[in-house]
Write a structure and sequence with these properties.
Blueprint lengths: L7 H15 L5 E6 L6 H4 L4 E6 L13 H4 L4 H7 L6 E4 L17 E4 L4 H11 L3 H21 L4 E4 L2 H9 L6 E3 L19 E6 L3 H14 L7 E6 L3 H9 L3 E5 L3 H10 L2 E4 L9 H9 L2 E4 L1 H4 L9 E2 L3 H11 L6 H14 L2 H13 L2
Parallel strand pairs: 1-2, 3-4, 4-5, 5-6, 7-8, 7-10, 8-9, 10-11, 11-12
């Protein structure tokens, strides 16, 4: 479901729909409904919208198919797609079951990769703390690696980073894959010049890898720094809340509103965004680059994104501390704003990227 636009995959899909619509493409959208019901906003850009139910729980467990795929195996969806000969663009590995169906062997099929999924689930396994979740992530990663290798030459793939493209070629043997940057909301660089008041980490705090990143920052970086640190995001655990409230100079903002989040982004002086997942693109980084001042990251956050020039990269806790100390009293400058305008404008041009996608689908 690409609407409301409240997570990365939805953002890429929703603004891709809009960009394709503006180029004159008639879109028939088939999507899974997770209880939100029909979304009239989608009908503005689509010729038709059909909703399907995802089969959750034990009924979708499989020894051969990843759960994210088997739970989206839906005969009504397959039957609907067989009623015409239109090209099919699948969003994520999640929706690719039809590539195993011989009835679609001669259809023009495209897959938008959100991540190298087996690596993403492997990273979640390594970052997790719950034994049950770690077991699920480990099993899913194993199934995904086999599955991704099985389907990688049954369609044309479109990665969100150059790193993911290179991984599909080198590790999975994919012969048809292109890099296509994510589609984002039309926006200008709003990064304020000058000096902000605190360091900020933001993200979905219910994700184990994000919680691990925050705990690393608290224990290894900010415990030894006398600078204010704000943590903001969705659904922090009781454990994280307890640790954050006991830390010096630290404030945690749970489930901020859009306005609160925008205020935090623009008032922060340094965005600290280490990551424990090295695949896909981090939407929180894009938001920080468009709305915030200095960004301090590790290699996993920017791998293959082309955003290196706009960030300060550290590999250890000591490096993060040194960069933060160096930047904390350094104003964010006009030159840095102009660098972002050039870099982000080149990468995230929805019109140009839609034209690339149209050309790829229809061989124009």
């Amino acid at each position: 479901m690409p609407y409301p636009v409240d997570y990365g995959g939805a953002m890429d899909l929703f603004y891709k729909l809009r960009a394709l619509y503006e180029q004159g493409v008639r879109i028939h959208l088939h999507c899974f409904d997770y209880g939100r019901g029909p979304q009239p906003a989608l009908e503005e850009y689509c010729a038709s919208v059909q909703y399907y139910e995802r089969t959750m729980g034990h009924k979708s467990l499989s020894n051969t198919l990843p759960y994210i795929v088997s739970s989206r195996k839906n005969e009504k969806l397959l039957d609907a797609l067989l009623r015409d000969e239109h090209p099919i663009l699948m969003e994520g590995i999640h929706c690719t079951y039809l590539l195993l169906d011989e009835r679609f062997r001669n259809r023009k099929c495209f897959v938008r990769l959100h991540n190298v999924e087996y690596q993403y689930y492997r990273d979640l396994y390594r970052a997790g703390s719950s034994p049950v979740k770690k077991l699920y992530y480990w099993m899913e990663s194993r199934l995904l690696k086999s599955y991704e290798k099985r389907i990688c030459n049954k369609a044309v793939f479109l990665s969100v980073t150059e790193k993911d493209r290179d991984t599909y070629i080198a590790e999975l043997g994919c012969h048809q894959i292109d890099y296509l940057p994510v589609f984002i909301a039309d926006r200008q660089i709003l990064s304020p010049e000058g000096i902000g008041s605190f360091c900020l980490y933001h993200g979905d705090l219910s994700i184990g890898a994000n919680e691990k990143a925050v705990l690393w920052l608290l224990k290894k970086v900010f415990q030894k720094l006398a600078v204010p640190f704000v943590i903001a995001g969705k659904n922090p655990s009781e454990r994280l809340l307890k640790i954050a409230t006991q830390a010096n100079n630290t404030r945690i903002v749970s489930n901020p509103s859009d306005k609160e989040m925008q205020d935090l982004l623009s008032n922060a002086h340094i965005h600290v965004l280490p990551s424990y997942t090295g695949t896909g693109i981090k939407i929180k980084l894009i938001n920080a680059l468009y709305n915030g001042r200095h960004c301090v990251v590790n290699a996993a956050t920017i791998a293959g994104t082309g955003l290196d020039a706009a960030c300060h990269t550290g590999t250890t806790a000591n490096a993060f501390r040194e960069i933060i100390v160096q930047l904390y009293h350094q104003p964010f400058s006009t030159e840095e704003v102009k660098l972002r305008e050039r870099l982000l404008g080149r990468l995230f041009d929805n019109k140009r990227n839609a034209e690339k996608l149209i050309s790829r689908i229809w061989n124009e």
